Write the structure tokens for this entry.
Amino acid sequence: MINNSDDITNRLEEEPPRYAVLVNDMLNDFIHGSLRSERANFIIPQIRLLLSIAKQNKIPVFYCNDEHLANDPELKLWGDHAMKGTDGAKVIEELEPSSDDHIIPKRTYGSFDGTNLEVLLKSTYNGKGANALVITGIHTHICVKHTVYGAFIRGYNIIVPKDAVNAFTEEDHRRGLEYIRDNYGASIKKTLNVVKNLKV
């Protein structure tokens, strides 16, 4: 007879989710400016809903925003965008952060790379730290994907609302979702299903 008592004990000892919401690059240049994508407009209502529910439940929100300098490597590929100090690097008006939200400037695709995001996540919930990240924004196959990777290697549970992320094309979006699901174990759900459980 197989003894499953250890598995049962482990499940009982699992901590309840302590959520944080990450909003990637919902900036003027990505929605209206130099790297604009009309598909980005489709996810604004879902992100607004997530933020509303998060704030009602005192769930911390992190805006992870490109804020580039002239020598950043990705500018060679994408051209100037979200340059530090410009209007293009500001969060769009529809999703404007509140004074309680955290702003994470980043210079690469991944929101953990070269930033203080992990330190701030660990400081939430009276020092217990967030352990489940709801990751939203632009672009599914680039910055969202690299941010999910950063969360994966740090041991976070990852939820990606598939209608609160998007990319330049449907193919880019679909491939991005499949990759982060298959390789990083992200839970891919619709926003309405995510908000049902978004409580602490």
